[in-house]
Amino acid sequence: MTVEEYPEVHPSRRPRSDGGPTRTIVFLHGGATGNWSWHRQVEAFGDYRVLTPHLPGYGARRSEPWQGLESAADDVAAFVAERVDTGVVHLVGISLGGLVGLRVLERHPELVGTAVFSGLPVLPQTAAQRAAVRARPRMWGADWFVRTQAGAYGALESAGIDDAEPETLRSVAADVVRGGVPQLDGVEAELLLVAGAKEPAFVRRGLAELRRAVPQATVRLAPGAHHAWNLEEPLLFDAVVRRWAERAEAHPLLVAP
Known about the structure:
By secondary structure, the chain is of the alpha/beta class. It has helices at 39-44, 69-83, 96-107, 127-140, 143-152, 166-178, 201-213, 229-232, 234-247, and strands at 9-10, 23-28, 48-51, 89-94, 112-118, 190-196, 218-222. Strand 6 (190-196), helix 7 and strand 7 form a beta-alpha-beta unit.
């Protein structure tokens, strides 16, 4: 299966243990991967209906231009609204997917009941950080990097960090380095914001900015975790997401920043 072929809709495969109705969970991928990067979560959440949309410019939508975080959020909201008739969804995003998810909460709060976002680069970045981000698209396209990352992340056959065109990666990088938190004062969704304890310091420092902007949110660190810990530490990631979606409780292994 190629990155373009990875499905966006995954029907539930088993009933819920509590006998309740099937719920829907939506996973938004990061900027250096594609929707295939949630394949371990798709397996773990077989009692949910799982949606793993391709963000604009990625995977099966690789030919489409990236038009910014707000446009991507509207795109995700339309995708969800077309597939969920009633009720709200559980929204999960990592890195770029988390930034898009924040805009979904800002612009379409009626769609979301709970949300877990991790690895959010919300602080404006220094000149050195901006230069490093601009250099990443060149590295992401290299065969050696694709093979290394695919192996490290347990990627699907033929999958790698080649889900998007270089122009898309440059446009995404430009959005990311600007930083910023949208207006979320009126959001009623239960919101958990996480950073890996081994992520870059500016990502971890961004949790304080997020706490100021969204005081009702719960903020935590994932011990020992790097950026893509949904693939690096899937058992803990899945347990964190499930506990939040079903109880709105932070997993006890997470720690206060």
